[in-house]
Amino acid sequence: MSFAGLGHLEPAAILAAADTRTPRSAWTSASAHATAVDAALLAGLNEQELATLRDRGANLDNDDLVAYLRAEADRALAE
Q: How many other C-beta atoms are found inside a 10 Å radius of the C-beta of residue 11?
């Protein structure tokens, strides 16, 4: 959600896809935010880009996911 809010749509899409491993019903307090993120991603990326990024995120194992999150957080903080 934070990456989408900052306009970093690629990491937002990748990380959102990784979140789909846990059903959204388990995160009921975040479901409205997730819907807003989905809308921002659809507005900022074409369908093919979004599908590619979601596939990439869904295929990251937990270690790679954490490494990716750290790298993108560092990049966002450096801006």
A: 21
2-31 residue pLDDT tens: 888 889 999 988 888 876 666 555 555 556
Q: Whole-prediction pTM value?
A: 0.72
How far lies 39's CA from each of 43, 51, 64, in Å? 6, 14, 26
- Give kind and range of the element (H or E) at residue 5: helix 2-5
| Domain locations in the chain as residue ranges | 2-78
